[in-house]
Amino acid sequence: MMPRAGHWRWMLAALLSAATVGAWAQAPQGEPQQPARRDPFDPLVNVVQPGQRGGLPQQLPPGKAGLVISLLRVHGVVKAPSGMIAVVSNQQDRVYFLREGDQLYDGVVERITLDAVVFRESGKDPFGRPIERQVTKRINPSAGES
Q1: Domain parsing of the chain, residue ranges
Q2: pTM above 0.70, yes or no
Q3: How many CA atoms lie within 13 A of 100 on its CB side?
Q4: For 98-110, what is each residue's pLDDT tens digit?
Q5: From 2.30.30.830, 3.10.50.40, 3.40.50.2300, 3.30.1330.30, which CATH number describes the 63-138 domain?
Q6: DSSP code at position 53
Q7: Backbone phi, then psi, for 22, in 5-degree steps?
Q8: 142 or 78: which carries more pLDDT confidence?
Q9: How many CB atoms lie within 10 A of CB 138?
Q10: What is the pLDDT of residues 111-144, one digit of tens each?
Q11: Other C-beta atoms within 10 Å of 84: how many?
Q12: What's the CA dihedral at 52, 55, 59, 64 to 10 degrees?
């Protein structure tokens, strides 16, 4: 007795699905396989890691080495025999005296004039490439300056 023409297709499909289920059931249950492709929902640019605020670590170094240029406020400049000294404060209203060449957390004091302090700020762009820019902070900032 010969099976009907459509009957063998149904039997083949049942055998293939049973073989697939059997192979899946016998797969090792260890570490999950890493996908061969990147997750399309992962961001392309760097994001702030947990435990960091705006790209800054929780604990900044003490003293001048922990000053962040974007958070500084210039209060005044003093002309001394040894050179110009800038009087700045941080967010906690702690006052620091900066000289040209002082290393800060994210840059260096480049130049101090009678009305402004020029910083060389170094950081990373959203893609992780290093960038440097010049930031000028004035004693009496006009509208729009910080």
Answers
A1: 63-138
A2: no
A3: 12
A4: 999 999 999 999 9
A5: 2.30.30.830
A6: B
A7: -65, -40
A8: 78
A9: 13
A10: 999 999 999 999 888 888 899 999 999 998 777 7
A11: 17
A12: -170
